[in-house]
Request: fold
Amino acid sequence: MRLAICIVAYQFENDLMLSRMSMVRLHTSALILTEFRQIGGSRRGLLKLRSRPLIQYVFESIPDEVDELVVSVADESEAEEYREIVEQYLGSFVMSSNVALPKIVHGVLSEKRTDRVLVLPCDAPLLTVEFTTFLLDLTRGFNAAVPSSPEGDRNYFFSAYRAEEFLRAYEVTFNKDSMGDVVGGMRNVIYLNYRALRSLDPKLTFILRVNGPEDLRRAELLMQRR
Reply:
């Protein structure tokens, strides 16, 4: 309940803040993660749903305010498989060499000279612009926005961060392989309880990830009902 109230309060305060900060232009990057196990011999993001690769649905959920689209891949061979669809959306690649997520985010924020980053997985075809915009809007009042289950499990695959504070926390964190440790060292972080996020979608379908054939069938059924 406290988080739900917090979000309502944020929405009210954010309207006021945005009116004051309307002239502030934040350079924004979107980081799409692809380094997940294959499904049926196919790269996760290239798996087809209604004749379109999963990653294309993710690209189309990215808000217009994003200036730069960056796709994280393990190596050049993976980049080649994604190249056609990524170039179609004017994106670029970063080679992660399968390092931990904090290091990938750190690399994008430091090398791309961006003010904030939106982090998304390549396998969430029901993502919505409403949700991704909401995450980015939160970074005007907070240094990070991270969904969280009622049990307290943080979902860093759908999150957004301000560059300066993430980089500061990363540098002073001992375990740089743990998003929990890095984000835990950040100041002014909002954790979004799933219960509060149900105001956007009662079934939370926008964070459904395709981890196997059953999830793919479920995503298609849910898409038909939209």
